[in-house]
Amino acid sequence: MSGSGDELPETCKVYSNIFVALVHYPVYDKNGVVVSTSITNHDIHDISRLVRTYDLGGYYMVTPLISQQELCRRIIKHWVEGFGSQYNQTRQVAFATTYLVDSLEDVIRELHEKCGKKPTVVITSAREYVATLCQKPLWRFKEAGMTMKEDTATPYVIVLGTGYGLETECIKTHGDVVLEPIRGLGDYNHLSVRSAAAIMIDRLFARDV
């Protein structure tokens, strides 16, 4: 679902084969219990704008909760079709490629149907051992950025988990590779998912300087 309808629009974006998915279920809480987290207003706005800024193909918000879906649809419709589309047209542009689906499986299926090829699922995590635990290759930022930039025939979806990270079984089932975690200068390792998304996308797709 997007503000402009259920069909994914044709794009001529620089990285139109690259997508971002923010997963709210299945994720862990701080006690290691699998839960569904709530979508925040910042999740909708900030990552939509991030994806548009770097000319990516689109942004998927993943939640099976009907109440959360209805909230998101109202917000997106306001900015794409309602008063917000006239009040702030840059927000309208950002939300034009924001989609809402029930599951990560739906993201993979939609991209497969649109692109004619199964997407490569790039899992993100704050913990490097996740790659070993789930028996997935670990991608360094340089390798990942070069591969995705050069392989324009393959769709890629960069998957971020909310809460305390994606469920391990979800990673094992759907993930193809795991992106290396962001490392700060100290021991503190608690970035918000939106901050982490911005850092990762810039490292992967920033202009050469």
Based on the model shown, name its key terms.
single chain; 209 residues; Alpha/beta knot; seven-stranded parallel beta sheet; two-stranded antiparallel sheet; disordered N terminus; tRNA (guanine-N(1)-)-methyltransferase C-terminal domain-containing protein; tRNA_m1G_MTases_N; RNA_MeTrfase_C_dom
Order of helices and strands: EEEHEHHHEHEHEHEHEH
Number of strands: 9
What is the count of distinct domains? 1
Percentage beta strand: 15-25%
Structural class: alpha/beta
Kindly provide the name of the CATH class: Alpha Beta
Helix content: 40-55%
Shape: globular
| Biggest sheet: strand arrangement | 5-4-1-8-6-9-7
The CATH superfamily is known as SPOUT methyltransferase, trefoil knot domain
Pfam families: Methyltrn_RNA_4 (PF09936)
Protein name: tRNA (guanine-N(1)-)-methyltransferase C-terminal domain-containing protein
Domain tRNA (guanine-N(1)-)-methyltransferase C-terminal: 17-205
InterPro entries: RNA_MeTrfase_C_dom, tRNA_m1G_MTases_N
Describe the protein's architecture and organization.
It is a single chain. The chain is an alpha/beta fold and 209 residues long. The chain has a single domain (15-183, 198-205), classed as Alpha/beta knot. It has helices at residues 41-53, 66-80, 83-87, 89-95, 104-115, 129-133, 141-150, 168-174, 193-205; strands at residues 15-23, 27-28, 34-35, 56-62, 98-101, 120-124, 138-139, 156-161, 177-179. A seven-stranded parallel sheet has the order 5-4-1-8-6-9-7, sandwiched between helices. Strands 2-3 form a two-stranded antiparallel ribbon. The longest helix is centred in the middle third of the chain and has 15 residues, at 66-80. The chain starts with 14 loop residues before the first strand and ends with a helix.
